[in-house]
Amino acid sequence: RRSPSPPPPRLPPSPPGLPVIGHLHLLRPPVHRTFHELAARLGPLVHIRLGSTHCVVASSADVARELIHGHDATISGRPITALARLFSYGSAGFAFTPYGPQWRFLRRLCVSEVLGPRTVEQLRPVRRASLAPLLRAVLAAAARGEAVNLTRELIRFSIASIIRMVASDVPGSVADEAQDLVKAVTGLLGAFNVEDYVPLCRGWDLQGLRREAAGVHRRFDALLEKMIRHKEEARDHGRPGNAEHQQEDKKQAPATRQRNMDLLDILLEKAGDEAADVKLTRENMKAFITDVVTAGSDSSAATVEWMLAELMNHPEAMRKVREEIDAVVGGDRIVGEADLPRLPYLQAAFKETLRLHPGAPIAHRVSTAEMAVRRCTVPPRTAVFINVWAIGRDPVFWEDPLAFRPERFMPGGAAAALEPRGQHFQFMPFGGGRRGCPAVGLAQQSVPAALAALVQCFDWAVADGETGFVDMDESDVGLVCARKHPLLLRPTARLNPLPAIVSL
Ligand code: HEM
């Protein structure tokens, strides 16, 4: 008598697919919207096949909770594409590094030191100084009566701010060179490369992306080398660095010493630490900087942009944000990160913006072992996409989900208790679990503070003037939830003269 064979694993529901390409043909950008439509038809956990890669898409808070609470270790890998491997020096950083000892070491270093609360606080003046060129550019446009392309100015500001946090004393020419290169790297990392999914296409470089990436990587690597060498020289000579100074420096308590350190100082110090669990190599440092610069620049810039666009379309909310800032700060200085605890409406508007337009709309993971989710089986090596964007708009939890209503996040509001870094799953713009965004603290300071300065210093009008509204279309390229059309607004200086703008 033969014993019955076990039933085949039951995969989550799936739309009809095609041979070889599976469901690739369904994947229209922006992908988070396509996934949302699939979920509306098939439910909150859907299985698809992109070429030879099995994928599941999670689109509700309950499924996200089950995955992150129940299987965090199993889904703590990140899928790595051919171009991500190149730019992360073969996974030497941590954003694209498999879950393991190296990732744990780098992640700990990142969360506790490089992007930890103390460093974020210490680098506040650096971020504030990066705001000055943005405000000056807007002021100049206001004087000429011209519109400002805020999409362009905000990405410039965001890249400059992160580059300055990495190396506060790099020459201006290096910071300028970084602008175009960072844009090129983030563009390539966000591009859909068919090679990653269809083995038949591997090695052919049908879209020419590898060739392009090789050139960009060479130039970006040279730039990173320049930044590191400049820092090494600065540490060797004088500032704060000749032998005498270093001796003096070492005598100080770590907290005092860290006061003058930027991210590269911290990395170089760790690289020289013989007792560290993992020896930081130059490759690790470069990949680390690449991770921080690419993960932080577009997402932050896009969030300031969406926030301003939403406020333009909701004059009542704009009025409340302004009144709050004016009441707290007055007109004789420019609002800053230190004022944020006294600006609850601004913070509520920030969270409401993240709910509707999460900078990174999908948290990408990869499973390392078989999992049972919602009574289905998810095979090992499956790409797991958590649709953060869809979860923020789920009508099961959010009343009138498409409306921009910062009041939800005000004390006593329906969502007041939902902290973006909390362990609930209805509002998770920074992902969650051990692989969640390590820069939540930084983004919570830098994004609302930049928006606040723009709104405090200028009145804004929609540039085309026809409808008086800003269009809210989403771009269909890249990994970030970005605007489709540039945000063009006409500024008028509101504080005239702008206080202490040159000495910011
Ligand atoms: C509003 C701005 C931002 C948003 C909405 C955002 C969102 C996210 C999300 C959703 C993830 C994936 C989390 C997951 O898989 O669970 C992530 C990862 C990450 N973010 Fe952010 N982020 C922002 C700003 C930043 C900034 C400013 C930096 C750095 C300066 C940064 C660095 C990173 C890194 C390095 C990772 C990968 C972490 C890992 O794999 O362990 N992010 N972010």
From TrEMBL:
Keywords, sorted A to Z: Flavonoid biosynthesis, Heme, Iron, Membrane, Metal-binding, Monooxygenase, Oxidoreductase, Signal, Transmembrane, Transmembrane helix
Sites where the protein binds heme: C437
Cofactor(s) required, per the database record: heme
Domain of life: Eukaryota
Primary location recorded for the protein, binned into one broad class: membrane
Keyword flag Magnesium: no
Protein's name according to its UniProt entry: Ig-like domain-containing protein
Pathway it works in: Secondary metabolite biosynthesis; flavonoid biosynthesis
One Pfam family per UniProt: p450
Ranges where the record places region Disordered: 233-256
GO biological process: one example: flavonoid biosynthetic process
Origin species: Panicum hallii var. hallii
An example Gene Ontology CC term for this record: membrane
Membrane topology: Single-pass membrane protein
Keyword Signal among UniProt keywords: yes
GO molecular function, one term: oxidoreductase activity, acting on paired donors, with incorporation or reduction of molecular oxygen
Lineage: Eukaryota, Viridiplantae, Streptophyta, Embryophyta, Tracheophyta
